[in-house]
Amino acid sequence: MDYAKKIKELREMMLLSQTEFAELLCVSFATVNRWENGKTIPTIKSKRKLKELFSKYEVE
Questions:
Q1: Per residue in 28-54, pLDDT tens?
Q2: Is 9 exposed, middle or buried, given 0-12, 13-18 or 19+ CB atoms closer than 10 A?
Q3: Neighbours of 27 (CB within 10 A)
């Protein structure tokens, strides 16, 4: 899965900045930035939160 592309797409669909998205997920801005740039991938805990958002916003 291309996490970088999917996470950015989800965030943009929600009309959130990286900072706002980070606050929603209880992570730092830098973490979201690294995810979107493909430097790191989300932890299992973050993946669970993202999964809920992906299903809510129907991102595949």
A1: 999 999 999 999 999 999 999 999 998
A2: middle
A3: 18
Question: At residue 20, what is the residue type?
Answer: E
| CA–CA–CA angle 25, 40, 18 (5° rounding) | 40
Binned at pLDDT 50, 70 and 90, residue 58 comes out as confident
Name the token pair of 4.
Answer: 């970088």
- C-alpha to C-alpha distance for 43 and 58, rounded to whole angstroms: 21
The token pair that represents 14 in the structure block: 């929600």
pTM of the model as a whole: 0.87
